[in-house]
Amino acid sequence: MREMLLLLCLFGVVACSETKKPPANVLGPEKFQKVLTDLILADALSTERSFKDTSLKIKDANAAYFLKIFELHGVTKNEFMRSYNFYLSRPDLLRVISDSVSAVLNRENLKLTTDTVKPKPNGNNSPKIRIRDGNK
């Protein structure tokens, strides 16, 4: 009986101890984060384009963008989906990836918004105010 209890405890410890490393058939966290970031950007682009061109079908545009992104990163749709499902089953790892994706997107957004408001080359960035002389 004692041996059975010990065996059950050992089985419980082994079953509950999860490794932080994903299986070999799953994209690593960094690669998955890069692909996911590009997919989110592509989805935003196709959504924005659909507002300008109402004949554009978002689903078709996304499919084309997504396939190109998979090609650029050297992964297949199946590899990505297998990895996606794995990370969905591991909220601890998915949270780290999501935070990383969010940070990258925030940095890109900040870069884009600050690049649109560039200082004047002469260094004088304050608006010119003309004061009227009451004598003229």
TrEMBL record:
Query: What's the short name of a Pfam family annotated to this entry?
Result: DUF4296
Annotated DUF4296 domain ranges read 23-108
Where does the record place the region Disordered? 114-136
Q: Which superkingdom heads the taxonomic lineage of this protein's source?
A: Bacteria
What InterPro entries does the database record attribute to this sequence? DUF4296
In what ranges is there compositional bias, type Polar residues? 114-127
What is this protein's record name? DUF4296 domain-containing protein
